[in-house]
Amino acid sequence: MLLRKLTDEIEGLRGLDCVARGAAGVVSRVTRPDVIKNALSGTWLGHPLHPMLTDVPIGAWSMASVLDVTAGRAGAASARRLVGVGLIASVPAAWTGASDWSDTYGAPRRVGLVHALLNVTASGMQLASLCARRRGRRGVGMLLTGAGLCVTGCSAYLGGHLSLVRGVGVNHTAFQGTVDEWTDVAAESDVVDDGPFRTTAGGVPVMIVRHRGALYALSATCTHAGGPLDEGEVVRDSCIRCPWHGSEFRLKDGRVTRGPAAVDEPRWDVKADGGRVYVKSATR
Predict the structure, then answer these.
(1) Residues 211 and 129 grouped into a single domain
(2) Of 197, 175, 173, the residue nearest 279 (C-alpha)
């Protein structure tokens, strides 16, 4: 309950907005090129990259503490190496996290800023631990690693809050229903060239686009943060760009081509018949 209350307090700290806005702007400029954004978002992997990478430093520092407690001086060298491995692994974890964080706003951005500051503090403590261990001050190193691990645990709590409570980084179409029968959703005249048209099928928002004479249909909710794809625009390589964070998806199959999205957009089968447009969930 204490951690939850502290998290609620952090979410309401509007005084963090100025710092967070400036830092997010810097990260956004650095990660603007497609190749960088896609690499850091996990677009190429089909899965957000940051959660996977955080396991390495947390695991390394945890095992270093286990060796400190259970192996005595016989495990000193191995524990020192694990602290170093954790420090190296924390760099890509930090960059992927910063990229994801730069696309948040409001309360999640404030929590993310504190999450990042805690991680920097923890990494600094682990660096100090490594230096102490290399100088033969094993006891000091053990204390610093243990303390740094506690700070990392608090940071991990905030990271879990962002993902599991605030929905940052989750697939926002994961729980959409499916429609197995052809469903009449629009008049064919309503769908103009390169003008995304929003409708619903079985209660699911669907975006229909006519592009180069062909009809395409994708779910209208962006997988990244729930943005309205129907308010986006058709761009290069026959893709639709989300108006919120710039994720791009191929019209023909929903494949994500630019982050921050890492999950493909659900595709719908679509046809025109008798002046009406029909859709149903795509067969896989």
Answers:
(1) no
(2) 197
